[in-house]
Write a structure and sequence with these properties.
58 residues
Amino acid sequence: MDWLGEKLDVSAVSEGTVTNYVNELREAYHIPKMVSERSYSTVPDLPMGQQLQVDLAR
């Protein structure tokens, strides 16, 4: 969605509309969906005040 706004100056479109359109393109042109696994690991505990956690979803 951000890419559409930046590159094509599109602002009034819902996420569902974009998802449906992309799915139709994938089916029409036989484009496989690239699935990548995210790796998670624990972070070693640091002394108080040495590390910050940010929630980018807000």
